[in-house]
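Quick one: DYW domain-containing protein from Rotaria socialis, structure tokens please.
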Amino acid sequence: MWGKAGSVKDAQKIFKSIDKPDVVTYTAMINSFGLNRMDSEALDLYQKMPNNLQDEVSSICVLNACSHSGLLNEAHSIFNEVSHKTKKIITAMQFKAHDRSHSRSKEIYADAERISSELIKHGHNYDSSWITRPLHENETIESVLFAHSERLAIAFNFIQETKPSFIQITKKSSCLR
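--- reply ---
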């Protein structure tokens, strides 16, 4: 609760007062760090967490923290160490804007282009108010927003062999039990 309210110090005080933290306690603290942009602390605590306590939810929380802060190498390392990769863990690997590091990038970008074309055909206009920095000389509003991380994640889900029944994309997701 304290972490969701932005009081990480209070959450840490409670966490440290527990003699033998369980998976729920570790995961809540990792999530608190992640929600409050303390991504290195989330990663550090996950690495200190006993391996027998690491589960799907704790892995998703630390992967979210890493991916949102650009700690992609660390996220890939954790992902590779997870022995049982569930669909939720696989989809927790977030993309960065204009990311081409995924092994299926060509397919992802092709589907992102298809999505974009379909949206424009039905009247979609790119909204420059979503861009929070000045455009570079060779950029357009469309080129910046076309390959945004959320759009790439959606395209990735569409190219999966087993189509998802729903897709939930969040900028800073919460992973509470």
